[in-house]
Amino acid sequence: MSKRVNLPYTTQDLFPQSVATPSTSRFGFGGGGGSTTAGSIVSGTGTSSIFTPRMNYTPTLGISSHTSGLSSHFKNIKVMTKRLFKPATLDFETAIWEIFHLIINPRKMYRSHYFYKQQQGNKSSYTRDDPSFLILLTGFLSISAVAWGLAYSPSVVDIFKLIVYMVFIDFYLTGIIIATVTWVVTNRLFNTGSLGMSQYNVNYIEWGFCFDIHCNSFLIIWCLLYVVQFILLPIIRIKQSIIALILGNSLYFGSIGYYFIVTFYGFNSLPFISNLSMTKNSVAGLGVTSSPAKLLQLIVIAGILPLLAIGWLITIVFRFNVADIMVDTYFN
């Protein structure tokens, strides 16, 4: 495994101009349809990637041309496990670059990540095969747990419990559940052909990729709830203070909202999501063309974010301090 070099990325890396994307592929999908996306969140994503559809499925044989059976599901896990015990293969430089841009500009990180996969010839899988990012995020959470423990529960046993809870329950267990749900939902939404959720489907989204999206999105939750909240907690826990109430609740609802926005960026940056148009039948039996990117945007902007805004307003009106309740839950 060779490390990625020449970071940070150049403009040519992020917006390649030398290779033209074919207008249609052998599967009938538009290759350069970046204009299918809409809105400020969608604009600028997906159009810079050079995409060749997933070629794992051979219709005449009904088998995968690269992998077979269940081995493909665990391929990246095996690679990451091997690299975990080979420190020389870990690419912390790229992981740090990704962490920085996930906070300030997640679209840039996703575009460069997928373009790099294209350059490496790995067009059938966008799952992260380097555990460096996961190691760093696990370390950040552990350090945060130690800091919280020293400040509010200075006992070795309590600090250890806090590390277990913050790392393995808050992050890993919750991530496994969320990744499984999004894996099922997205594959059912975007794989409407006869193959369904089969790994041989041209638009199949791997479970590992969904877990990667959770890891990327969880970073902002760590920043706001594990770091910023820790610093501002003396202010947030002031009783009967409207400023403390607004500040604490805004941190929680804002971090959850940004989690879903970064999740949207992750799925929307997949070339077949941003370029593909799905055709479904309406009630009247007429063909209606819809974009998966627009569908994802509708779910986030018209569904999740308004619900979070309403929840935030309700907690303010009824003076329910979410931050104060969560701290009491953690430390009794």
UniProtKB/TrEMBL annotation:
InterPro entries: UNC-50. Keywords: Membrane, Transmembrane, Transmembrane helix. The keyword Transmembrane helix applies. The chain crosses the membrane at residues 133-151, 163-185, 217-236, 243-267, 295-318. One of its GO terms (biological process) is vesicle-mediated transport. GO terms for cellular component: Golgi membrane. It is found in: Membrane. The keyword Membrane applies. It is a multi-pass membrane protein. Belongs to the unc-50 family. PANTHER family: PROTEIN UNC-50 HOMOLOG. This is Uncharacterized protein.
